[in-house]
Design a protein that fits this description.
Strand content: 15-25%
Radius of gyration: 32 Å
Number of domains: 2
Low-confidence stretches: none
Mean pLDDT: 83
Number of helices: 13
Largest sheet: 6 strands, mixed, barrel
Order of helices and strands: HHEEHEEHEEHEEEHEEHEHHHHEEHH
Structural class: alpha+beta
Helix content: 55-70%
Strand order of the largest sheet: 3-4-9-6-8-7
Amino acid sequence: MSGVFFYARKDAENNKRMFVFITIAIALSTANIIILNGVMDGITDDFLDRTMETTSGHLNIYPDEKDRYIEGLGIKEQKLQGIEGVVAYSPRITAGGALSYKEKSRSVNIFALYPSKENRVTVLLSKIDSGETLKANDRDGILISYRLAEVLNAKAGDETTIVFEKGNTRVFKVRGILRTGMAMDTNTVIINFETAAEQLNLNNKASIILIKLPDKALSGQYKDIVSGKLGMQKVKEWKEEVESMWSTIRTYKEIIATINAIGLFAAAVSVGVILYINIIHKQRQIGIMKAIGMKDFQILSVYIIEAAVLGTIGILMGDALGYMGIKYLQAHPFSDPTLGSIAPRLYTYLFYDASSVTMLIVILAAVYPALMAGRMNIIKAIWGN
């Protein structure tokens, strides 16, 4: 095999242009996979983080199918306090309504909550773009989403009017403008829980209760416990809350996979075509090698080893380019008006996956030219036919 390795090395050294072209193609394909998958992971993980930070607990309790609201909120809160492992909980009321400012009016989704309880479960009330957050005993203040503020041309300190879904009307002062990077940025108003309960005539009721656990991984374990203790049938884990978005995320991942496949195909074609042309130009050398005793599998091994060496160098270059690309994009993230900044995530598996897949494609691309070289007829090869 020493002769096989020697000839493979010499062949690569004698074809420096081929060497450079193939390694660049492989490097770019590898870097492309790393960067695109890193960006996709960044979008997915950011979405999950924002969801857990603002709109969902580790467990969420909903009214039973036949009910609109959770009845007996006070008793259920007492039972939650008695469950060991429940770190915090936050009841919310969700309702529809309309927000008016000067001569403009827009339909809104109203979120009512206890600021002190909400702050123990989520960071929703800290997502302030301007102004200040909602205080615990503030019955006259509201927070509005930044897109709603833009449409109404409202700002912190302005007085607005909310018409609740049951027809009650009340004047509120805008304390702050909210920006979460989630869908709620479109038309959301946040008010104090007690104020909403009074305006909607909801005594001791809630639309949802968010529960925080020591670790989100415990949600499956606690789901049945909470359901049994509170006598509630509809208790959802955080994974179920984001399930509707996974189809969209899967679609994006399929698009990324297609782009990666195109890059790998280009690299495979480069390797296969250049090795094929190289073999055609070296038919006489291959014939002479066979004439002096080299076996078919040894000839085949020469070009497989050559492809593996080129693949290894190209992959190492691609890993370096991919790392630098992700670091650059982390320092200079994309900006989106809804999601905010979008930056890739750097995970070790990105390099393992990209490297292994690229190497497999490179070896497969080299198989046909290598087989052709190994099966070449000695006489025809020597005569160059």
